[in-house]
What we know:
Layout: E1 7-9, E2 20-25, E3 35-37, E4 43-45, E5 54-62, E6 65-73
Antiparallel strand pairs: 1-4, 2-5, 3-4, 5-6
Amino acid sequence: AVAGSTVELGCAAQGDPAPRVQWHKERGDLPWGRHEVDQEHTLHLYAVTPTDAGTYVCTAQSQLGTAAATARLRV
Length: 75
């Protein structure tokens, strides 16, 4: 991604009951005040900087178990 741009990382998780979906960053925190997760579980990162680079993990959890997916961001 280009520094200063907006990045969207999708996470499709379905189930009955609907799983609880959470995003986190390996070895760091999500950018304070520059991220949000919408109703489709897409993580939006605004005005990305080189410090935002890294691996982001989407975790979906329900009574049936847990699933996780990762995305690597390079700025």
